[in-house]
User: Fold this.
Amino acid sequence: MIYIGIDDTDIAGSRGTGHLAQLIADDLSTNFHVVGVTRHQLLFDPRVPYTAKNSCAAIHLTLVTVNLPILFNRVKAIMLANFEHGSDPGLAVASFVPQNIIDFGKKAKTDLVNQAEAFGLASQGPTLIGGLGGTNDGVIGAMAAIGLAADGNDGRYIRIGDVRELEGFVTPRQVIDAGVSSVKQLNGDEVTEGLIQAERLRPSRRDEQPVLFVEKGEESWLPLKLD
Assistant:
């Protein structure tokens, strides 16, 4: 898999980083197979200068032979043309994510991390990162995004298959046919019958697969948004 991490591209009142991640995915889909886009929640702490919820995003591409610096510069150009001025955007791209970057991503969910740590990890192996404006602190979330995406058990999909096209009430089979691997309750039991409310489905990333978790409502299954 090729992972592209972005963060801190927005300001108060603007569209979030997830929106820009979708623009990047749309552009790359002309040359790559975009597997999905995931949102990852980082540390909530007053010492972290985040805009709203301190989340970052990762674009997942099927691994192919590619010149990573060219891909990095292509995404960089899209970001420079679309990020909100006043933000501190950062970008990371990798086709192999070592364990120390996965650990960095996990740490960023529970503790303070900094640019020096992110750049230090990038200097050790084939990850490309760069700050694109402001304080460049977005490199922290961008590096965390690729680590958490590569871990395979964090975040939720804001883009996967044809899930965004589902509307109204749908069956578990329709959800799976749209690109989700399974529909489950929180206890792990699979859901195969009944109807699911299909408004803004956000499957979770579990074992590198999109899993939609639901809970029982009065008349249908209600989708959950889990990080």
